[in-house]
Known about the structure:
With about 900 residues, the chain is α/β, with parallel strands linked by helices. It folds into three domains: about 5-15 and about 100-375, P-loop containing nucleotide triphosphate hydrolases (Rossmann fold, 3-Layer(aba) Sandwich); about 400-430 and about 785-880, Aspartate Aminotransferase, domain 1; about 485-515 and about 530-750, Type I PLP-dependent aspartate aminotransferase-like (Major domain) (Aspartate Aminotransferase, domain 2), CATH 3.40.640. Helix content is about 35%, strand content about 20%. It has 28 helices and 30 strands. Helix 5 (about 85-95) crosses helix 13. It is elongated. It starts with a helix and ends with a helix. Pyridoxal-5'-phosphate binds near residues 648 and 685.
Amino acid sequence: MESCWIRYPLLKTIADLSNNNTWDHDLTCNVFGEEIGSEITKIPRLPLEENDCLIWKNNGAGLFSVKEAYLTDQGISKDDSSREEAVIHLRLALKPHQPKLGDHTFNIDASWKNVQTGFPSDSDSRFVFSKISAISARQTLSRSILATDRVLKASCPSVVAAFPGGEVGDCGGMLDLESSYRECRIPGEEDGEHSELMCETMFAWREAVSPHLAAGRENGMVEDSDLVGILRRRLNCGFSEEKMNAFCVVETAGGIASPGPSGTLQCDLYRPFRLPAILVGDGRLGGISGTISAYESLKLRGYDVVAVVIEDHGLENEVPLGSYLRQSVPVLVLPSIPQDLSDDLMEWFDAARGVFDSLVKTMVSAQSERIKRLHEMPKKAMDVFWWPFTQHSLVSVEDVTVIDSRCGENFAVFKAQNNGVMTQQFDACASWWTQGPDSTLQTELARDMGYAAARYGHVMFPENVYEPALECAELLLEGVGKGWASRTYFSDNGSTAIEIALKMAFRKFLYDHGGLSNSVNDNSAETSTQLMVLALTGSYHGDTLGAMEAQAPSSYTGFLQQPWYTGRGLFLSPPTVFLSNNTWNLSLPEGMHSNKLKDADITFSSRNEVFNTSRDKSNLAEIYSSYISFELARYPESKGSIGALIMEPVIQGAGGMHLVDPLFQRVLVNVCRSKSIPIIFDEVFTGFWRLGTETATKLLSCVPDIACYGKLMTGGIIPLSVTLATESVFESFIGDSKLTALLHGHSYSAHVLGCTAATKAIRWFKDPQTNKNLNSEGSSLKEMWDKELVYKLSSHPAVQRVVALGTIFALELRAEGSNAGYASIYARSLLKKLREEDNLYMRPLGNVLYLMCGPCTSTQICTQVLFKLYKRLDEFSKNQ
Ligand SMILES: Cc1ncc(COP(=O)(O)O)c(C=O)c1O
């Protein structure tokens, strides 16, 4: 029997080896070996299995007596310090005997203690388990209960303490105890189906200190992912469908911000679940402040606090707490807990019963209201929203994604059709390319913005200075604007940043080309020159009217969308680069083909070669240069002058995730600069590490005169945009009259919250301490997408081309006719599967599918999502 210690130290009673009052043959043989196990299972059973203890030999204090074993089994220890913390569970343990609570009766009550230190003398789950039999001895239950108590994993010292004399040796790590558990059946008045009470401690340590300390001292570390993973499995799959009517309480250890085993604060650790919270506040002196602080920590992390519970200490803390909470959250007061440790608390439970009743009622009604609302939302949304970029006639109510919240890269999605479970879905389109935060940065951003809102509210910008705006401007100029920009012009979205850039560029052009001489005195349209842009087909610069004028005709600019659209520009088709059949290839538009080209000019051994500036000396560079000069020369003067070059550097996003040949863009910049045409880089999409470097200028190896940023700049948490400019662009607006100033502004220009978020995100992304994806020089992100998988996808028969760069992976499905292009719904079934079965939230650009992560997303996550896409694509192409 000694040898069983290590594997099954919590086997204490015959019940631990039983199934419905018969031996669990497999478990018994597993524990004692086939031969002895078979012998044991032949022993006839007595009905009172709970009282038959296994006696383990050779403990330090002599034999483990039956009495001691019995007491331990009943959860009665000499110093029962756990009870104060654990009493909150007891009402739940009682609840199955209450015939109805609102519309709910529960088949299952679960009381989960994820992290327990001070084990075994302190054990909340044991406490609940033991008290249920004590309570049942005082009153008849209406329904019978099957109660179980289980510890999943425990540190060696805690196992030794739980079973003195046991030899666990130098085990290291956490012992797996899942297969040993206690079970007790308490008969009720009614026959028929019993209720279940599941008491579980997930991880236990001996020392009664903070879990991170106990885990370190007892050599029993637990990763956050393991802890969260176990809880997720319990919450999602613990119950079979017919038993879904369950009531679960997850009790945290210590306070809201006490560290978990890895050191992560528990309020952060459990945040992905965003379970409705009951705050156990403090009824003692000083407790008002502590309770409010805890409440605010929860709110700041996006939790809904359903109720606050305090113990009565005669100080009426509930009055100021209720008033602070504006009576919107009930504050319940439990009677004082008896100090006498020999008190079995039964009378206290009787006295507290009413409070526990209201607590359960409050929790149930808050949760059912929440669920009801979540169920109603899709239909209501269909009735009142007008979604952008959405053909409503193609959307049915089942297609609507109900997003309860976001935690890092994941949405928490409520799936009404799937038993109303809350599922984590990876936001693979980074919510329209804005997102960067992992869950840690999200919390940091929320806190900083809360501070900024509290400090400034909103303040107007012109001729004013405030720290967030100044700090943000300085960071931008030291970062994305380094080496060329000296001015920051804040606005609030990408499109307006573009409009501002166009105004700046045109002024600069006129200034440099003598077009401003009369304008200060005569600001009328008649005297002005027609100014056009030089831009690329497939480009996208936003949806405001001016930004649209600067882009080539597309699905977004057609007469149906924008009858005012004229397309004020010379639009050149750019050469693009893509990965296909394991090779990076160049695709040249008509007009650029030449017999001077060699194979080496149009295929590349690696992506790095595409960005290599040694290509500046190639034939291709010459071909590009003459093509651009030729197109500029033949542009009719009657149409106007080219007053600005505007382009998305390196990748055209909305146009279909095309990687434009960086050599072509560099040549374009050089040609325009030689003609004093101001250059605008639209980095709204490409900026802030989207392409693996802080700015795409690093990839292009050339700089603009003006650049626009938005989206990821704030980490994606709040809208803010900026247009950066050189000093000489700025100077073209300087004069004696206000009329020559840039007369452009928005109500929320340089918004404090936006600037605050941007300063945090900009720093976070480029700090190797916070962004583990940075390479050793801190200049670029390591490869985010598994190379082998990327190459495999590039040679998949269903795939036309692939682009993988920085945080973006994109592929174009091979498709023809109406299956190709922006309006295509060719990939619909594939996307539905990915969303519903793989929890991957994607939104394609027609037949172009893409995945997008944040600059700090772990590469393991990227590989997981890419693999999901690969598998589904394979299935999809076989079914075509
Ligand atoms: C390259 C580019 N420029 C401008 C914009 C417009 O930005 P916003 O949607 O913030 O107006 C976008 C939006 O996707 C974009 O991708």
